[in-house]
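Class prep. Write one:
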Amino acid sequence: MASGLLGQLIRFGISGGIATAVYAIVYSPLAKYEITTPSIANLVGYFFAMITGYFLHSRWSFRGHGERGNVAKTGGRFFAVSLVSLGLNSLFVWVLTEDSMLNGAWWWPLIPILFVTPLVTFALNRIWVFG
């Protein structure tokens, strides 16, 4: 059973990496070139990453794990977990970039977004969404 978990973790990492890359590709130019605020850029990036993530995770990362009969159930739960992800990422963006907080560079939030958020969402997806 450990190989199943390890396989899921590897597939989740690859799929999550792709979804995170989509997020970064959307977020970065919007924030860097001040097309919009970093917080709005975060929302736009989240939307594209969420759609990418659902398709990759439901069809590949957690294939063969749990029950797949109820797409409305897994889709709704995935959306709820993605809101947790959005909340974490928004917190990182707010704390690290806003003038009233640390006033850091546009790219600072990408560090916890790449290393903290994926661990939280893997656990929630494995146990609750696709479990």
Summary: Residues 2-32 form the longest helix (31 residues). Helices lie at 2-32, 38-61, 71-97, 110-115, 117-129. The chain has a mean pLDDT of 88.
